[in-house]
Amino acid sequence: MQLDLFSQGNSQAQWVSITNGEYLFVPDFFNVEEANRHFKTLLNDVEWKQESMSMYGKVIPFPRLTAWYGDNDKPYSFSGIILSPIQWNEALLEIKAKIEVEAKTIFNSVLLNRYRNGNDSISWHTDSEKELGLNPIIASVNFGATRKFQLRHKESKEKIELKLGHGSLLIMGGELQHYWQHQVPKTKKAVNERINLTYRVIK
């Protein structure tokens, strides 16, 4: 269920309107105590997996660990793999309840990515799979190290860069997933682990 994007949320942050989309960025949505607690819990309690995909006739491991949680009947497919959801745990439900107030959306699934160091990354892509429907709302929550998050318009090649830090929330809406790619690039800088959660609505 997706609600009015422009209703007042809890934070003072405002939706930013861009070509073919909009986003809301709240750098300190979770306070330090909350962020520390969630990071430690997710690090230890999530069922992390090393997924792989086929590319040019070779099986290549994802440069990060992943996990898929959600309602039992909502599988998700991307990069040639199909993920069956693990049952929600308490931490994921607590985070979900808080961000749903801001996103004005009831999420039924979450994809988790664990970036162990600067070599872990995710390349340019869109979250526009058919299971997500038209103009999906994606809420991205971040705990741990700060990493660059880059957006690139598929036609104009316009770029936007945000630094997603410990306890931050980024909500992407409107047509954004259909017109903009995004990535978390590798970095040669020494960085600690980062956990990213992207809450979604699977149709």
UniProtKB/TrEMBL annotation:
<dbReference type="InterPro" id="IPR037151">
    <property type="entry name" value="AlkB-like_sf"/>
</dbReference>
<feature type="domain" description="Fe2OG dioxygenase">
    <location>
        <begin position="106"/>
        <end position="203"/>
    </location>
</feature>
<dbReference type="Pfam" id="PF13532">
    <property type="entry name" value="2OG-FeII_Oxy_2"/>
</dbReference>
<dbReference type="GO" id="GO:0051213">
    <property type="term" value="F:dioxygenase activity"/>
</dbReference>
<dbReference type="GO" id="GO:0140097">
    <property type="term" value="F:catalytic activity, acting on DNA"/>
</dbReference>
<dbReference type="GO" id="GO:0046872">
    <property type="term" value="F:metal ion binding"/>
</dbReference>
<dbReference type="InterPro" id="IPR032854">
    <property type="entry name" value="ALKBH3"/>
</dbReference>
<dbReference type="GO" id="GO:0006307">
    <property type="term" value="P:DNA alkylation repair"/>
</dbReference>
<dbReference type="GO" id="GO:0032451">
    <property type="term" value="F:demethylase activity"/>
</dbReference>
<keyword id="KW-0560">Oxidoreductase</keyword>
<keyword id="KW-0479">Metal-binding</keyword>
<keyword id="KW-0223">Dioxygenase</keyword>
<dbReference type="InterPro" id="IPR027450">
    <property type="entry name" value="AlkB-like"/>
</dbReference>
<protein>
    <submittedName>
        <fullName>Alpha-ketoglutarate-dependent dioxygenase AlkB</fullName>
    </submittedName>
</protein>
<keyword id="KW-0227">DNA damage</keyword>
<dbReference type="GO" id="GO:0016787">
    <property type="term" value="F:hydrolase activity"/>
</dbReference>
<dbReference type="GO" id="GO:0016705">
    <property type="term" value="F:oxidoreductase activity, acting on paired donors, with incorporation or reduction of molecular oxygen"/>
</dbReference>
<keyword id="KW-0408">Iron</keyword>
<keyword id="KW-0460">Magnesium</keyword>
<dbReference type="InterPro" id="IPR005123">
    <property type="entry name" value="Oxoglu/Fe-dep_dioxygenase_dom"/>
</dbReference>
<keyword id="KW-0234">DNA repair</keyword>
